[in-house]
Design brief:
With 152 residues, the protein is of the alpha/beta class. The protein has seven helices and eight strands. Strands 1-2-3-4-5-8 form a six-stranded parallel beta sheet, covered by helices on one side. Strands 6-7 form a two-stranded antiparallel ribbon. Strand 4, helix 6 and strand 5 form a beta-alpha-beta unit. Helix 6 packs parallel to helix 7. The longest helix is centred in the C-terminal third of the chain and has 21 residues. The protein is globular and about 50 Å long.
């Protein structure tokens, strides 16, 4: 079994010394890392080389939804160069009101990801479990998306 960690847990260290923090994280014995919005202002190819040097796999990449809504955004280059299994995003809002909008832009992101040879993932928290007509908003969003292109 492999073990990975989401880099959001190390956001302070990464913001002050991105490469140094990655080196220290690698020493902790993780097999992989999931990037969370911060790529250290490092070129995708350079970051891929650093991961290889540190013997870390990319367990995932998380981006702002606006980045993933742009089919030409560098986010997709990061996902490709880092061999990420998916591109993920999340949101904080009133899901009982916004779930249909989220479902709609999730489909766009899923199509963009598919065009780049990957899938989209939604990183949920707790708000998505608020109910709409007795059903969690998360389930309503899932019903409006293609499970071959999009997952939670």
């Amino acid at each position: 079994m492999k073990f990975g960690v989401q880099l959001y847990n190390f956001r302070k260290a990464l913001s002050s010394d991105f490469k140094g923090a990655l080196k220290e994280i690698a020493k902790l014995g993780f097999d992989g890392v999931e990037f969370a919005l911060n790529f250290g202002n490092t070129d995708p190819e350079e970051l891929a080389a650093l991961l290889k040097e540190l013997k870390l796999e990319c367990a995932g990449t998380m981006f702002a939804k606006d980045a993933l809504l742009d089919k030409d955004n560098i986010a997709y280059a990061y996902a490709e160069k880092l061999n990420s299994p998916s591109v993920s995003f999340g949101d904080f809002c009133d899901f009982t009101v916004e779930w249909e909008n989220i479902a709609a832009y999730s489909r766009i992101i899923a199509d963009n990801a598919a065009a780049h040879g990957t899938v989209a993932a939604y990183h949920n928290h707790w708000l998505e479990f608020e109910k709409v007509d007795g059903v969690p908003a998360l389930c309503k969003i899932a019903e409006k998306n293609d499970p071959d292109k999009f997952f939670f």
